[in-house]
Amino acid sequence: xxxxxxxxxxxxxxxxxxxxxxxVAAGSATTPEELDAAADWITATVPGTAEQALIAAGRxxxxxxxxxHDRDVWYRxxxxxxxxxxxxxxxxxAPAEIFLDGAQSASVASMYVPTALSxxxxxHALAIRLPALNPVLAAAKGPRPRWRPMMIxxxxxxxxxxxxxxxxxxxxxxxxxxxxWQGMHLLPDTAAPRLVSLRLNAGLEGPDGVxxxxxxxxxxVEDAVEVLCAGHSQTLHPGTGNAHAGRLVVPxxxxxxxxxxxxxxxxxxxxxxxxxxxxxxxxxxxxLAVDRGPDGQGFGLxxxxxxxxxxxxxxTPPDPAAPGVADPRPLxxxxxxxxxxxxxxxxxMGAESMTFxxxxxxxxxxxxxxxxxxxxxxxxxxxxxxxxxxAEVQHLLGRLAGSPSLAVVCGGSEMAxxxxxxxxxxxxxxxxxxxxxxxxxxxxxAPQAAYVPHxxxxxxxxxxxxxxxxxxxxxxxxRRPMEDARRADVRFASECLAFAAVxxxxxxxxxxxxxxxxxxxxxxxxxxxxxxxxxxxxxxxxVGALFGLDxxxxxxxDPDRWLALGRAAPAILMEAVFxxxxxxxxxxxxxxxxxxxxMKPGAGWGLVDRLGEPKSTWHALRRAFRPLxxxxxxxxxxxxxxxxxxxxxxxxxxxxxxxxxGEGPHPLARAERGLTLAAGKAFSLSSHExxxxxFDIADAYRFGPRAHQxxxxxxxxxxxxxxxxxxxxxxxxxxxxxxxxxxxxxxxxGEAGPALAIATDRFAHAITVExxxxxxxxxxxxxxxxxxxxxxxxxxxxxPLSTQGRVTALNSHPVAYEHAA
Length: 821
What we know:
Structural class: alpha+beta
Protein name: Beta-mannosidase
GO molecular function, one term: beta-mannosidase activity
Oligomer: single chain
InterPro entries: Beta-mannosidase_GH2, Galactose-bd-like_sf, GH
Strand order of the largest sheet: 27-26-25-24-23-30-29-28
Keywords: Glycosidase, Hydrolase
CATH class of the largest domain: Alpha Beta
């Protein structure tokens, strides 16, 4: 179990400081005595990795392959204990060997299982050897696999419990994750009973919170054991084997809600034994149920009785060379600010730190937690391997006892898909560990979460889109038209919409990325192993489809314009797909974009670039993810579908406007209506119904030349006039040629700091801001003729103050603005 956060009788002492690290030839030293006395030791941070230490010491340039998987890495330090104690290693990359005073005292077979080492009082030499991984992989032997995936190399990685990061060519950077990726603690021995296990399960019964708790100790406890939470307490009942259990009821508790639906209220839990107080983490009171739909084939989450459309992205560690080490909060705050309700930990990325999970609890971000399995046929029928990975699950889930953000536990990523796509029938690809054993373990350790055996999973084949959970790349990698998002009838997409999304011009300059440097540029573009195309080809396909241009010719003649359209196309598609999935008639209950952030410089899958700056796709999804949502869909001869969603728990009066624009300043069709959106409801209406007359708004009938280019829909507050939600529909090939539309921008002082007042005389398509010192808080939106929008500016960290910036739209020449002196 995860140790308690603080114990007044025996506080855990971090062992984070005074570490040295050395890199030596593989096999050149197998004990501390064999290490050359002149070994080149450098300081190292714990938790941390060898690549981090080498970069900090100036021995390695960021982004440069380290070759550490071909060399041994050693860590060492001295420790002084006044009394005997236990050293707990929360996470060492595997394989690893731990030496105390020159003798090997423990070994590590999984990076996801903590290791404890007893240590007597006195001064001691502590050392850790991390053998070179490549020779270990070359020598690894195991049962013959039933299938051999191409994505992760080498295949023997399925036998070693190490992360797949750095082993996915075309996906992740060439990193070597080696070192103590989680912290170390010294737990002093004490005569007082020490906590051995802790189980928490927080829920709701009507307005009251209920906390079921079960604890056990290493020796009998003479005093009463009391649990305290949210200002209430309850004495636990003693049981057998030094165990205690009970239920605490908290009347009228503040419940935990996902982002956008209410406050993510959490409450500290303490154990009290006499004058001894133990901090046992935080819990959130909520309920969670899975809604399979009327046909029993769907997948949707219901939190506190309220259906939640799960929208978000798959997580990527801020530093791929050190997963679980770097502060996750800045990225998670961007996820929250984009309106996300869920973050997925993919089986390809591994596990995360408790800091990550605590932040998700606080920010209201539901967590879909793949266990660290992906693609392979793992030898789970081997008793030793099965015991090891069972211990992993027990630790990874045991430490999340009571975590309200933990919503879905999944056996792993694309295992059933790989087996099926490579020709196995369902009975040949059966995996009892994931389909029979793990459900019982998850029910015991994480009763607050739903369980899914694999992702994708459900239907006649594991990866079909109209049943269970799927990985949807119809719009995206498979270059299907936008109509496929409806035709696929997606029920829940735990992965979707991967594009090689282009960062802003300023961010590309800071990353020293330029398409003219074809080798370096292409290294930042994701590619599936074995494919003769990459995800830039996918993006270019949609640039051609949306704008009626030849992207290859444009790249050669006007690369800046090619990049601008490349920023716009994925953003338009993502916003449109989620508009489709969130409409009232859709059976979709969630979509998680692949990925949240880039792992390499350049045009990666991330919604956030390598410098932590939101891309155009992040801004688009922030519009698409609003709890109060407005979407437009092309319904052909039936006009445009106007879709309104109120996911909040309060009804809302709104004013809906719809207007279509051509090249002139006045709308060619316009309608307005006051509406009341009921809490937790969605409904749709037709543009024909709203306009009350015929207007070929979708350009479906095509009687004569096009009269208009684009249609804008807006929701405003009827009292204050504040913009609540917006959506746009631009006809293919329209509003894309740069011209004089009367676009203007002026630096102003906003309510919270510097801002831009952006205005236009004609319809403006996909506004962007280019500024070396600031980024715009909103981009990619469309402006109606005569409209002015004030956009706050956010200072870029570590960049000089700029004196000038410029604003542009896809159909406008750029216009400059000056910063105040």
